[in-house]
Amino acid sequence: MRRGASGRAGIDCPIDLFGPTEREIEEITASINQAQSPAAKAPLASELRRTVGKLLSCTAYDPDNANCRLCQEVSQLRDKTAALVERAAGLDR
Fold first, then answer.
1. How many angstroms separate the Cα of 13 from the Cα of each of 16, 18, 62, 88?
2. Is the distance from CB of 10 to CB of 4 less than 8 angstroms?
3. 82 with 49: CB under 8 angstroms?
4. pTM of the shown model
5. Most exposed among 31, 33, 45, 49, judged by the fewest C-beta atoms under 10 Å?
6. How far apart are the C-alpha atoms of 30 and 75, rounded to whole Å?
7. pLDDT tens over the chain, length 93 residues
């Protein structure tokens, strides 16, 4: 793992998939957080799940690489969170 410009620990992706996808995820997450209603959040959550899916379906995943394992774990949590947002939107109807 490495430290990014912000000083936060980062994932050192062996195929450089994580960095660009992480930026997309951060933008989508910010949009979800700014959306005012569950109905407005739902399509963004779906977009987040599609984007996170890129990481979850990585064909270069190496279970022996700590960065790969961390990427998968973080991605699974994000997918579950986005699924909850989608579900909450369905309950709001």
1. 5, 6, 10, 33
2. yes
3. yes
4. 0.85
5. 33
6. 16
7. 554 444 456 899 999 999 999 999 999 999 999 999 999 999 999 999 999 999 999 999 999 999 999 999 999 999 999 999 999 988 866
